[in-house]
Write a structure and sequence with these properties.
SH3 type barrels; alpha+beta; disordered C terminus; GMP Synthetase, Chain A, domain 3; five-stranded antiparallel beta sheet; 4 helices; three-stranded mixed beta sheet
């Protein structure tokens, strides 16, 4: 089992047990390594408190197993707005958004594709891709995708901000704290 696979086997269950979905796990760097863990809650969000809590959980697992011989830094983060697309479900979830996909093998004489995600058809990712001549559909086998991510567009930013505002508004209505309250105090004087 490779080092990357061992880290996946070690950390994925810990991430899930903590109530998150592992988006990406990567060991990067040369002399000083960074173990990057991208995760999200089931609702697709990940805030600073989530990152800190998951970091503590994973630190305990890593301390006990000691899987990395060299010095490294643990980095726990959200996937971000222009998030990586790593699971088949991501391609269905983000249909209608622009994405950039890099393949392990060439398809139609190229390895890189940028276009509008249409979704999934079986195990193929379907995209509308434009070139110099026209726009056409391409079917990219999921198993051949090396890396994929959303493209940061004005629409993606607007919709992300709108979703955050809705979540915050909903949270403020559900919060048990309702701000300063006035209390009527009755003073009886004799």
């Amino acid at each position: 089992m490779s080092g990357q696979n061992f880290l996946d086997v070690l950390l994925a269950p810990a991430v899930e047990a903590a109530g998150y979905r592992l988006v990406r796990l990567r060991l990067m760097g040369g002399k000083r390594k960074t173990l990057q863990v991208m995760a999200e809650r089931p609702d697709g969000q990940m805030d600073v408190e989530d990152c800190a809590g998951l970091s503590r959980t994973l630190s305990e697992v890593l301390e006990a197993a000691d899987p990395i011989a060299e010095e490294y830094v643990l980095e726990v983060s959200s996937p971000g707005i222009d998030r990586p697309l790593t699971a088949e479900a991501d391609f269905a979830r983000f249909a209608g958004y622009e994405a950039r996909v890099e393949m392990t093998r060439g398809l139609e004489g190229r390895k890189r594709f940028k276009g509008l995600l249409i979704g999934l058809d079986g195990r193929d990712v379907v995209m509308n891709v434009s070139d110099e001549k026209d726009t056409h559909l391409v079917r990219l086998p999921f198993s051949d995708i090396q890396e994929a991510k959303l493209v940061l567009t004005d629409r993606l930013i607007r919709e992300s901000l709108k979703a955050r505002e809705l979540r915050e508004a909903k949270a403020s209505h559900q919060s048990p704290y309702r701000g300063p309250q006035r209390r009527a105090t009755r003073i009886e004087m004799e």
